[in-house]
Automatic annotation (TrEMBL):
Residues 97-255 form the Methyltransferase FkbM domain. GO terms for molecular function: methyltransferase activity. GO terms for biological process: methylation. Transmembrane segments: none annotated. NCBIfam families: fkbM_fam. InterPro entries: FkbM_mtfrase, SAM-dependent_MTase, SAM-dependent_MTases_sf. This is FkbM family methyltransferase. It comes from Halorutilus salinus.
Length: 272
């Protein structure tokens, strides 16, 4: 990446923390600041590719937007989660990447699992996801341009932050959002026999975690491992909570542990 991009990221990591970050969040300015910073990075960055090695698995990604710079410069601080999934997954496992975005998890895990299904409803992200699959010469993928949920039908995806490839804060709309995109939702348990049942699932859906899990129905009985990032503020907007996610998983027979935290967001590893 360019020297200017490296400098901008270093300044952000050094300055935007502690009291300054808390003040920005308290004033409700963080979404606008993130959008402006993403636009600045997009201007400063070149259209290029970056390659990362996690646990001996290499994956290459196209980078041309500010959000992609942030996503792939440090793997969104999720390298530990990627490594954990890679250590858990087997060649025979069917992997569901729910909220695949532009393919960070898909491009790594599909090189171990022989069957991966990626769910991503946002058009810009889907296009870049497909590009990244080509870059990595990955063919054992089914890309579903849908959002897994507890219902089959039409819905609105709230477009937040920058509306560019790599943006990971889009979420199912709750009714108060200014900008939305029409999408399709589908229950995971309605996909069979068209799509194989999952053994391992990764969920990152910006507050719709419970909807995804409820839509899995009996599939949770046969699924052996779920990685789920919870978003407490987004869950609260839907009248739900982190604790309800944990309760739903434990009620389905999983042992749940917290393996990674990023602000209020927490990655859970649920295993049978």
């Amino acid at each position: 990446m360019s020297g200017l991009v490296d400098l901008l990221e270093k300044v952000r990591e050094t300055v935007y923390r502690g009291p300054i970050k808390r003040a920005v969040v308290a004033m409700g300015l963080e979404p606008r600041l993130k959008t402006a910073y993403s636009a600045l990075l997009s201007t400063a960055s070149n259209d290029e590719t970056v390659t990362h090695d996690v646990a001996g698995v290499e994956a290459t990604f196209r980078v041309s937007t500010g959000m992609e710079v942030q996503r792939f410069r440090g793997l969104m601080n999720e390298q530990g989660v990627v490594k954990s999934i890679l250590s858990d997954i087997t060649e025979e496992d069917v992997f569901y990447d729910v909220g695949a975005n532009v393919g960070l998890y898909t491009c790594f895990v599909s090189q171990v699992s022989e069957s991966t299904v990626a769910f991503e409803p946002h058009p810009e992200n889907v296009d870049r996801l497909r590009e990244n699959l080509v870059l990595n010469d990955i063919g054992n993928i089914e890309v579903r341009e849908e959002a897994l949920s507890h219902t089959n039908g039409d819905a609105e995806l709230a477009v937040t932050g920058a509306d560019v490839a790599g943006e990971g804060t889009h979420a199912l709309a709750t009714g108060s959002e200014e900008k939305t995109v029409g999408i399709r939702t589908i229950r995971a348990d309605s996909l069979s026999p068209e799509v194989p049942n999952p053994d391992v699932v990764k969920i990152d859906v910006e507050g719709a975690e419970i909807s995804v899990l409820r839509g899995m129905g009996d599939l949770l009985d046969s699924c052996r491992l779920v990685y789920c990032e919870t978003h407490p503020e987004r869950l609260e907007e839907r009248g739900e909570s982190h604790d309800e996610v944990v309760k739903l998983l434990t009620g389905s027979g999983f042992s749940v542990e917290e393996i990674e935290s990023r602000g209020e967001e927490t990655f859970l590893r649920a295993v049978k």
